[in-house]
Design a protein that fits this description.
Strand order of the largest sheet: 4-3-2-1-5-6-7
Protein name: HAD family hydrolase
Distance between the termini: 41 Å
Organism: Colwellia asteriadis
CATH topology: Rossmann fold
Number of domains: 1
InterPro entries: HAD-like_sf, HAD_sf
Pfam families: HAD
Number of strands: 7
Strand content: 15-25%
Keywords: Hydrolase, Signal
Largest sheet: 7 strands, mixed
């Protein structure tokens, strides 16, 4: 009898543990947004449903900055570029008297940088080297660099609820892609390990490259020229060129993602557009239309018209950062 009771207790514990582990979107608060996502996945992956989507067409695209990880007080790739300025300064003495490099070398965050200035800074600090060297530099920096405010490693600034969403979608045979305005080579150096998204499923802005044979070894060498800006209207183009089909799900957080959401949800099949709204000033940051980083204005207005799902970070997430 005691043996049977013990077996019953053990079996109950195993079942309970399995159920807890299998709970979808565990860091999402119970409510309309979580329910909408789960029901959408259910109806698009259940055979016989009028909204069923074939596995081959189950494509979900995610912005990165401000959607999968934080983006304040500046895009994290900018912090990498700042570190590169200091590293490359000995080979560029003119930077001591040229802005924004002079400020950076004095430990100051460059002020009033336009998008054009940012692109130029990234190109000048990310080019002139082989693809292997660049990947190694990004990986080395990411292994030790920490966020200036939270003091967390940058890879710990990933959103736990979004990691759960990526896993949940993949469990239902959705193929997940990153579609970011950030540099594709920068993301490919670390994102596969952090998000479980392989390099070939990462779409981003690209600087030009050329093929060279150096000391008898074939190399890809990075050039200080922007080849493609994968932002705003560039995102649907980047998706089409890389994937060749319209996504079923698109997730973003800013006006830079508006075209991607618009194009995704214009399709005939059942589709889902999601906006992550930064409303939590205690656990993260609260910002939208007045922010210089991740500005959310037109897309938030359009969300109501297009029936996009607006996720309220403060009220819809029980946890923010990766556990």
């Amino acid at each position: 009898m005691k043996l049977l009771q013990s077996l019953f207790v053990i079996t109950s514990l195993v079942v309970t543990t399995t159920c807890v582990a299998a709970e979808p979107l565990a860091s999402w608060q119970e409510g309309a947004r979580k329910h909408t996502i789960i029901e959408f996945v259910k109806k698009t992956t259940t055979e016989g449903s009028k909204d069923f989507i074939a596995v081959a067409d189950r494509v979900a695209v995610f912005d990165n900055d401000g959607t999968l990880w934080a983006e304040q007080p500046a895009y994290f790739q900018l912090f990498f570029a700042l570190s590169q300025v200091k590293q490359l300064a000995p080979d560029n003495p003119q930077w001591k008297t040229t802005q924004p490099y002079a400020d950076i070398l004095q430990g100051k965050m460059p002020a009033h940088m336009t998008e054009k200035d940012l692109i130029e800074l990234v190109m000048n600090t990310h080019a002139g080297m082989t693809s292997e060297v660049f990947t190694q530099q990004v990986s080395s920096w990411m292994s030790s660099a920490k966020h200036p405010i939270t003091k967390k490693p940058f890879t710990d600034m990933v959103y736990q609820p979004m990691l759960e969403l990526l896993t949940y979608l993949r469990e239902h045979d959705y193929k997940t892609f990153i579609v970011s305005g950030g540099g594709v080579e920068f993301m490919r150096a670390w994102a596969p390990d952090v998000y479980g998204i392989p390099a070939e499923q990462i779409i981003g802005s690209r600087i030009a490259s050329e093929y060279k044979v150096i000391d008898g070894v074939p190399k890809i060498v990075r050039l200080p020229e922007l080849e493609f800006n994968n932002d705003k209207a560039g995102k649907p183009i980047g998706i089409y060129n890389a994937i060749g089909k319209r996504p079923i799900i698109a997730v973003g957080n800013s006006d830079g993602d508006r075209a991607m959401l618009e194009w995704t949800t214009a399709g005939a099949e059942s589709r889902l557009g999601v906006i992550v709204h930064h409303t939590d000033k205690e656990r993260e940051w609260a910002y939208d239309k007045d922010s210089k980083i991740g500005k959310l204005d037109k897309a938030l207005i359009q969300a109501e018209k297009e029936n996009w799902l607006v996720v309220d970070m403060k009220n819809d997430w029980s946890v923010v950062y990766k556990k």
